[in-house]
# Entry
Amino acid sequence: MTDRPNYITPAGYAALRAEYDRLFATERPALVETISWAAGNGDRSENGDYIYGRKRLREIDRRLGWLSRRMKAAKVVDPAAQADRTRVWFGCTVTIADEDDQQRVLTLVGDDEADAGKGRVGWYSPIARALRGAGIGDLRRVTLPAGEKEYEIIGITYSID
# Structure
């Protein structure tokens, strides 16, 4: 992992915590019980329940470790508590327009909760880095895989759904 902070919204942290709790309290114990039952059936070399169960248990343990590290490193930032609401900062929803007047609405969230299809971009993504600190009417140039594009900031709000 890098030294940069793992910013996350309260809703994003709650989602990580819910997944951790579900895996640890529900799925893992049920799987351990299945593996124990399968191990008692004799030959383990051709026992599908045992082999698959052990593989799935390793996957769950790996995911639990990852979730634990991400939650430990998380810095929860509530967008509603943002002091300067006139600029683009973490947790804001920003409306931008390109040179062709094509508008996009983006919400700047933590990298763990980013979903480009829903307009939620990670705080360390190129477009989020370019928009940081901008105010309404500012122009920002972003280098994207398709080339450089210039965006104008049209609107800024600080309400996360």
Summary: The radius of gyration is 22 Å. The first strand starts at residue 6 and ends at 8. The chain has two domains: 6-76, 79-157.
